[in-house]
Amino acid sequence: VKTREGNMTNYKGKISSGIVTSRFSFEGPTTKNKGSFITTGRLSYVNWLMQKTKNIDILNSSAGFGDFSIKVNQMVSEKDKISASSYLSWDNFKLASDTTFQIQNLGFHLKWDHLFDGGSLGSLNLVSGKTNSNIVDGNGFNAFTMTSSLDYYKLKYVFSLAEKNRHKTEIGLESILYNVNPGNFKPSKSNGIADPVKLPADLGIENALFISDKFDISSALSVIGGIRFTQFSKIGPSSVYTYADGMPKNANEVIDTLNFAKNSIEKSYYGIEPRLSLKYSLTNSSSIKIGFNTIHQYLHLISNSTSTVPTDYWLNSNYHIRPQRADQLSIGLFKNLKENKYETSLEVYYKSLNQLLDYKEGGNILLNEQIETDLIEGIGNSYGTELFIRKNTGKLTGWISYTYSRSFRQFESEFTEETISNGNYFPSYFDKPHDLSIVGSYSFSKRVKLNWNFVYGSGRPITAPDGKYDQQYVLSLRNYSERNQYRIPDYHRFDLGLNIDENFKKNKSYKGSWSFSIYNFYARKNAFSVFFNQSGFAYKLSVLGTVFPSITYNITFE
User: Fold this and answer.
1) DSSP output for 411-447
2) Contact in structure between 242 and 256 (CB atoms under 8 Å)
């Protein structure tokens, strides 16, 4: 994915202001024909509308987001180009329960391209990124603030050889530093039953060397092959508990503690990642693509789907936790019809997954200094088919996309506490069999256009109580189903929009337009999550679970 570069000859931009969101973009030359910039931003202010409702839950909730980006490019010589870009985003929402969730992302990218004599190109990339997640509970006696973060810093160099004998070859290397802050828990002054908790930083370094080549065997057949060698090291300082051999990892089986000094290596892993793809053109308008690749993932994402808002936990591979591995095979048929008026594609894929992580039944993944005792390793697979149809020309344009996909996991062990669902395959958190999108646009004239969007998706799996035990004067106990055997309700939504352009005279320096939109046209209360209280009662959390109209005025100038 590459961000667009700004215009090197003319200044142009767009400003949109609406009752719930505003956005802008502006671009132009820094040095004519040698440098450019582009900057964009978006901001929402939906809270004032939420205060107009009579629904007490919405009235006591809040939501908002914003993002900003800027990119600058400059030719410093005939053979050298430097570009720099930065991105900032923030999301905040508060539930009626007085819990506020905040997520911030910050990224920076500096790139230097140099064209060598003979046509080869070298690219040096410096990248940094930071993600912060905060949970603030202001609920009186139990009030607290919990923060976590993930920082990464990457250095990457790619050397692209000049095309020769129908070969396009790239060689590169990269190094990434991951700095994970697993959690910092601070109870408020009024919280007299909890102590502060701060987990130590989790550091890891990933290195890679790769080479790839594209070879056009004939006008109809091309092959892209590559191989990537990866190495990962978990870095100290750290303290690692060791456990009795032949026994499940738990606090009762600790036999020793290994201490690793600052910048020392706690554990290293290696991986070989081949990649191969073939494209065969059946005709000028149709082709077949076949691909295979292997990927190792050294940074783990563990999700807890049973909380009010699903929480994510980042974790580096370490002394006890091995990297995940995926092998994927895909086959696709692509066909354009009626001189590219229509684009169609059909793809199928299968992915084999190994060394996956999940939490034990009743496991705790947050603020856990011995998290390996609550995690287990298993296998999985994913497969599916994707169908895509797009109409590119005419008054009516748009596309339809449908995906049928399944994703399963299996965690089987000789020990009961390290087994999930009796060792049987169960749906993963990402198992959403049906995904349908219908996007369309109809132009009544050059100035008036109607847009619509319909989305449908299967509800994600959850683990839910299927029974409870009550005893007089004693808090009820819930009995949970096997892992992910229930689903939240399916998601579907219809949005409608009308765009009206003002008359645009040739001598006018800007162009204005009005956008009228209705989000969630039939006011479906889609479930963002379903959660359960101690008594087993189910609650559904919906975000914007009603019809949401908006008016925006747009100005485009150049």
Assistant:
1) ---SSGGG-SGGG--EE-TT---EEEEEEEEEESSSS
2) yes
pLDDT digits (tens, 9 = 90+) for 444-453: 998 999 999 9
Classify burial at 165, counting beta carbons within 10 Å of its beta carbon; exposed 0-12, middle 13-18, buried 19 or more.
Answer: exposed
User: pTM of this prediction?
Assistant: 0.89
Q: What single letter denotes the amino acid at residue 47?
A: N
Judge contact between 404 and 434, C-beta under 8 A. Answer: yes
Contact 299, 351 (CB under 8 A): no
Burial class (CB in 10 A: 0-12, 13-18, 19+), 505: exposed
What's the pLDDT tens digit per position in 430-445?
A: 899 999 999 999 999 9
Distance CA 268, CA 236 (A): 12
Residues 6+ apart with CB under 8 A from 385: 346, 347, 348, 349, 403, 404, 405
**CA-CA distance, 64 to 123, in Å (whole number)?**
38
* 304: its two tokens: 């807890």
Q: Round to whole Å and give the CA distance between 431 and 351.
A: 13
| Residue with tokens 């930065």, as numbered in its chain | 86
The Cα 297–Cα 173 span in angstroms is 17
Which residues on adjacent β-strands are paired with residue 112?
A: 82, 124
Q: Which residues, other chains included, contact 508 with Cβ-Cβ below 8 Å and sequence gap of 6+?
A: none
d(CA 31, CA 76): 10
Structure tokens at 171: 């060689």
pLDDT score for 548 = 84
State which amino acid sits at residue 297.
Q
Phi, psi at residue 58, to the nearest 5°? Answer: -70, -40
The one-letter amino acid at 421: S
C-alpha distances in angstroms, 119 versus 29, 122, 336? 26, 10, 34
Report whether 28 contacts 10 (CB < 8 A). yes
Token digits for 389?
A: 């149809």
Give the DSSP letter of residue 249.
Answer: -
Partners of 410 in the beta sheet? Answer: 379
Low-confidence ranges of the chain (pLDDT < 50): none
Q: What is the dihedral of CA 88, 94, 98, 103, to 10 degrees?
A: -30
C-alpha dihedral (332, 338, 341, 346), degrees to nearest 10:
-10
Taking only the tens place, the pLDDT of each residue in 64-104 is 899 999 999 999 999 999 999 999 999 887 766 667 888 99
